[in-house]
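Now read the record:
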Amino acid sequence: MGDLWSSISDTFSRLGPGSVVDILLIALLFYWVLLLLRGTTAMTLLRGVAFLLIAAVVLARIFDLRVLNFIIRNSFIGVLIAVPIIFQPEIRRALERLGRTGLRAWLRRPPYEEAIEAVSRAALGLARQRHGALIVLERETGLEDYIVTGIRVDAAPSAELLEGIFYPNSPLHDGAVIVREDRVVAAGCTLPLSDNYWGNQLGTRHRAGVGITEGTDAVSVVVSEETGQISLASNGRLIPRLDEARLRATLTSLMGQAVPDGVSKGY
């Protein structure tokens, strides 16, 4: 016991300010990675890899498995190659977050008041008529890759415009509308589908609404054609059964606008 305490004391005595900063930075990096992976399929995969690695180390030590010990000791290069391949979507999302233009976010927030009002009113009208809709609001991550898959609109947002786009059998009603600041940029856009929802839990429109928020920081509003319910997706998560007031308050908060007095946040 004395030797253990002496070893611990000796270790702490060697810690200088640089070592403390180094440890804190590594801890923050791991914490940020875990936050990034939380709620995704990659977290389940990471737990499986960690369990397999721990089991291999324990078995190799207990039974003195020389080949397994050799593989574990010399697998660092293989791990470095495998990690970018296995966690490619999460790494891309992290790099996108780091590469976003932060000056606009710090200095001023883009105007979204008109778009939020139009999207909220349109969602309510579409829900009453049971007309399916998918509206995406761009934030810091650019959505040009998805805009080019649709038809350019470049119009001021209005509830009438959005309801007309998603009227059944209209040419653009099957795709998504993308809003950038206070402009409807494009309609009929194709979005990636989420892999985190299976079976009959969600339809294609809802999976697309969630999917665009998994790889970007966009916010999407989905109106169900079957039930008339309004849902909102952000950061890969779906908030269902919203009314107009909650939808407007949640959008206002997520888009960084000032929430009016007397209106509670919808999430």
In short: The first strand starts at residue 133 and ends at 138. The two ends are 52 Å apart (CA to CA). The chain has a mean pLDDT of 82.
